[in-house]
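Appendix B. One record, verbatim.
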Amino acid sequence: MSVKIKADIRHWLRELDKKYFFVMLGFAVMVYFPLISLKLTNTVDGLWTTAEYMAGAWELSNGRWFWLVTSFLRFSLQLEPINAVVCLVLVSLGVTKLHMTFKTVHEGRTSCLDWLAGLCYLANTVIGCYLSFAHQSVEFGLAFYLSVLAAVCVIRSRSIAAGIAQGAFLLALSLGLYQTDLACFCMVLLAWFLVLLFRGEEGIKLRYYIAKCLGSAVCGVHFTAGEYSFVNTNADEWENTEKPMACQCSTKSLLKWYRARKGLSADAPMNGKLFFDAANAAEPEALEVLERFCKMVAVQIYNLTVLLDVEKVAIGGGISKQPLLLESLRSAYDGLYASRAGQAYMEGLPRCQIVP
């Protein structure tokens, strides 16, 4: 058994496009070096300030069962910059695996587009979010890698049964770490389907047409579509740079309002843990500020819901672990609809679920 495992590892290393992998990894380390070296992780919000975090009931409640296993295997330690480096290695391996899979389409050649695609993926904000959650960055990276392996197994397997079994097993492990990577699995399979569909001269023409249509819709004419954080929250104070949603609906604003309500100086020590300790202890000032904050966020969720008709809105960041936050946010969101219950136009408006 051990001999076979060693042989499989040697085969995997021989097959790996080492040049592509090390370029991707080197680029990723360069891009995220400021974040890693300055420790710009969510230890800043005060919720995870220790060197150890043991996954438990909260992860299970979100369906992340495999997280408990990986957390146990690495002793639940946060060892910066080791966590970040391991995460980047796993993501770079996943990107390299995708490159090796799709390279077979154009006779094994690596084009400039292959390099650009890999670099663009590694430089996207999702990877920055992975690294900002210092305790979980390893799990995030592993979830991505497993989702890629699941998709590659489905693509490469010559047997339908084997492809389904291997793909389902690896995908289950990936979703047991982070469910969002289901989208990665689906997008890889969709991309492969399009490759098979658009081979040949007519396929190339069709590919260009679809790429132009979808690219315009997704990216916008100036490639800034989806920047929801810049939505303004107050037309009467347009000149006030603190009014965009990214400022008003942030932990920074929550703590700023709490300091003001308590009469503390602007630079008084304060973080998410201290605030929610007060709120969970039913301190009137903390609850008052939390209500204001949740209504601000709820209004933007309402706007997003009526604009895009989304089914669920996920609340991220360190403070999303606080049950009181989600409870207050859902109450504020329901209150928006209740306050206009008598209006006929409200009856047909969609409502979404707010989840952690």
